[in-house]
Write a structure and sequence with these properties.
Blueprint (H helix, E strand, L loop, with lengths): L3 E4 L3 H13 L3 E4 L11 E3 L5 E3 L10 H10 L3 E5 L2 E4 L8 E3 L22 H26 L10 H4 L23 E5 L3 H12 L5 E2 L4 E5 L4 E4 L4 E3 L2 E4 L3 H7 L4 H5 L1 E2 L2 E9 L11 E3 L9 E3 L1 H4 L8 E9 L8 H13 L8 E9 L4 E2 L4 H13 L3 E3 L13 H17 L4 H4 L5
Parallel strand pairs: 1-2, 1-13, 2-9, 6-16, 13-21
Antiparallel strand pairs: 3-4, 5-8, 6-7, 10-11, 11-12, 14-20, 15-18, 15-19, 16-17, 17-18
Helix pairs in contact: 1-5, 1-11, 2-5
InterPro entries: FAD/NAD-bd_sf
Organism: Mycolicibacterium diernhoferi
Protein name: Amine oxidase domain-containing protein
């Protein structure tokens, strides 16, 4: 039997599998999807456009991650960082460079950084003032999280991976010198190309079974039942399935009623010709305006021209799905196309419409989340289950790709020797 069962072949599952390969320990990785990378996968559609499933920017705080990127052999573009806010969603005239708080003509006078903070809304109001709160921070965050800010904790803002530490390579991604802060590295071929190459170069051959779902787990016998009719016995399980799913395996259902995940439609439009001037040099845009369906748009062809191909360009928009008033995929695609037309994108030049609904977009750092996760971790580890990764760990502030990769490695080391898992619980230390 494999000593380790790894559930999920995203960044965390791959990190765990690479570590197990280094140690020569028997393991099996199963993933219900049909490709490697999880939330960091890339999809190429029938028209030849490549889509990431979000606006991924590659950071590194860890030598282990740098070594994996270098060993993958994947080339990196160093993309000029050029993010903007589309403040009113009414045309190019309301585009402002980020960070938006640096675009004020005069400083706000209603700042109270030492005032009491009960939730994320208080944090933004106290630190940025009422005008910025009302015009950007409140509507943008509500669109992104799909919840009112008074339901969201503020503590993650000081723990967010990279928020208080260098967001540059430790040794230089792919062995080169650290990139300047004005640029960021992006894998040629999309983020999914990186994780496919890490698998090919650093993981045990034939250790991954795609299109294989874990149906349930006997936590006492430590046996997982798979949807292909087989079973897998294990000593330890590194699970990147949603922690609510893992807790169901051990019969604890309360977290499924209290933990919250955003839901979104990833909508991509591929165009022939050149992008309009308003989008030609952008990397990403944030939009708080209620009239625009998306909260973030990523110019993927500016990350890598091959994502679109010669004489074409593509943009991916993240459209929130609110429980109270859900938007359909067709409505989302139509709304995205209309909004981009206001920025000069000619709908007659659209040659590809891509969409993918993500039932798990972001793990929301709701009030009381950490107390629940501590108890969940204790209960799961009593059965040899380490629930880690973006939704396995449910900690947004620990879920960048480099953090996810090292979470998997550290989970293996903790299972074997009790080594600390600082990347999961203490991202602010890196």
């Amino acid at each position: 039997m494999p000593t380790f069962l790894v559930v999920g072949a995203g960044t965390t599952g791959i990190g765990a599998a690479v570590r197990l390969t280094e140690l020569g320990i028997d393991h099996l990785v199963v993933d219900a999807g049909d490709r490697l990378g999880g939330m960091s996968a890339s999809v190429t559609d029938e028209a030849g456009f490549t889509w990431d499933l979000g606006g991924h920017v590659l950071h590194s705080h860890f030598e282990e991650f740098d070594r994996a990127v270098e060993a993958s052999g994947v080339g990196l573009n160093h993309v000029t960082r050029n993010g903007w806010v589309w403040l009113r969603g009414d045309g190019p005239q309301s585009l402002l460079p980020t960070p938006i708080q640096q675009q004020l003509t005069e400083l706000p006078t209603d700042l109270y950084p030492d005032a009491p903070v009960a939730h994320l809304g208080d944090y933004y109001r106290n630190n940025f003032g009422r005008d910025l709160y009302d015009g950007f921070f409140e509507p943008y965050n509500r669109k992104m999280w799909t919840l009112p800010l008074h339901d969201i904790d503020h503590e993650w803002t000081s723990l967010r991976s990279g928020s208080a530490a260098r967001n540059v390579p430790v040794l230089g991604l792919a062995g080169g010198p650290p990139a300047p802060a004005s640029t960021f590295p992006y894998p040629i071929g999309g983020t999914g190309a990186l994780w496919q190459a890490v698998h090919d170069k650093l993981m045990t051959p034939d250790s991954v079974r795609l299109r294989t779902r874990v149906l349930d787990v006997d936590p006492v016998a430590r046996v997982a039942r798979l949807d292909d009719g087989g079973t897998v016995s294990y000593q330890f399980c590194i699970s990147t399935a949603p922690v609510t799913t893992a807790l169901g395996w051990i019969g604890w259902s309360e977290p499924a009623q209290t933990l919250r995940a955003s839901r979104l439609h990833a909508v991509g439009l591929g165009y022939r010709g050149e992008p309009p001037p308003a989008l030609a040099d952008k990397t990403w845009l944030y939009c708080p305006a209620e009239s625009v369906p998306w909260y973030r748009a990523t110019m993927l062809s500016n990350y890598d021209a091959a994502n679109a191909g010669p004489g074409r360009w593509n943009i991916l928009c993240e459209v929130p799905v609110f429980a109270q008033a859900p938007i359909s995929v067709s409505e989302a695609v139509d709304g995205v196309q209309r909004s981009l037309q206001l920025l000069g994108a000619d709908p007659a030049r659209v040659v590809s419409r891509f969409s993918d609904t993500l039932d798990f977009g972001y793990p929301v750092p709701t009030l009381g989340r950490d107390r629940l996760l501590r108890e969940a971790d204790e209960r799961l580890r009593a059965h040899g289950i380490y629930s880690r990764g973006r939704f396995g760990g449910w900690r947004y502030e620990s879920s960048n790709q480099d953090y996810g990769y090292v979470q998997g490695r550290q989970a293996v080391d903790n299972a074997l020797s009790g080594a600390p898992e600082d990347v999961y619980w203490h991202p602010e230390r890196f």
